[in-house]
Amino acid sequence: MRKIFMILAVMAAPVQAQQVASAEGGVLRALDKVSGLSRDVEMQRGETSRVGSLNVTLNECRYPEGNPAGDAYAELDIVETGEENRLFAGWMIASAPALSALEHPRYDIWVIRCTTS
């Protein structure tokens, strides 16, 4: 159902080519829904960080060219420690975290911004 809404949204929106740049890293926000604690995780491209029982790998972070503070898009792989199956593999968008979200009973992770230095 969610995929249908995404397809309809893409089809309804006017198509505009936007130039993007690739960043050296990015900042993610992680929320432990049990304790209520959140923390920002700054990562470099290709780096894996541990968030509770999750291993989060930042493969890529992109932003609108000429506007590093603009909307970030990050490609992430998220796996549970000791497991082989991915919980999440794909792109997250900072301005629309629910569009492509990690579905986990304890943790929420979303993109905040890309880092250029």
Explain what you see.
The protein is mostly beta strands. It is built from one helix and eight strands. The strands form two sheets. Strands 1, 4, 5, 6 and 7 form a five-stranded antiparallel β-sheet that branches. A three-stranded antiparallel β-sheet has the order 3-2-8, with no helix packed on it. Strand 2 (25-32) and strand 3 (38-44) form a beta hairpin. The protein is globular, with a radius of gyration of 15 Å. It starts with a helix and ends with a strand.
List keywords for this structure.
five-stranded antiparallel β-sheet, 8 strands, single chain, mainly beta, 117 residues
Q: What is the topology?
A:
Layout: H1 2-12, E1 20-22, E2 25-32, E3 38-44, E4 48-51, E5 54-64, E6 73-80, E7 86-93, E8 107-115
Antiparallel strand pairs: 1-5, 2-3, 2-8, 4-5, 5-6, 6-7
